[in-house]
Amino acid sequence: MEEICSMLDTYTGRDKIVRTLCYTAKLMSAVQSDRGNDDIAKKFATFSTKMSQTRANLRLLDDLPMIKYSLEYGFGENEPDRLMSRIGVLTNIIDHLYYPVDKICWAIDAKILNVKNPERWDTLNSLFWTLSIYLNLMKTIRLVYIMRLHRKNIDKIENESAAALKKLEAKERMEVISIFRLSLDFVHAASTLPQGWLWGGKFSTLAVGLIGSTSSLIGLYQYFARKRLAKN
Known about the structure:
The chain is mostly helical and about 230 residues long. The chain contains eight helices and no strands. It is globular and about 60 Å long. It starts with a helix and ends with a helix.
């Protein structure tokens, strides 16, 4: 109970909960629809939409934290190697392009803005989202590769080295899980692209709900696992 309340006290924690509710409701809506329970399916779909809108509303406040993070990140001087630094800087640039576009899409959806081709903004939004996830995936794969190289250099005989190896292995396992989660997120994000772009528009509601739910549950597990790992 204490861990859950602590999670709900943070923006990241709340977003993970709302995201999980959003996609599990979408999944349940698709399941109920396939079973012919249209009324129940509609209720789950409405709940999923409301949760998605909640996340979109909360993202309106992400600009300042993102600017702060980018300034602290700089050119990635603290990254393990130059490639990760370049990927990190490029990811930050993509994210800074994504947020204003996301706000325009929010304003269009709320009928605050009237534009001739709202689909173009949706496409741009999906493109930046997909690129950001892809870059994070590539960065995490590179990190796991570096961690494995480092693990080979640790002496397993000495006690201190054995302890360091155990901690490194735990972190590596967490990053491997992140690769799987980000892969799911990338598959999902790319499915929102227009038809003809990768696999855009080819996924059913059931597939999107299943992918999103799995990714969200993995994210919840990692949230608590990382907190326990930090205590050790």
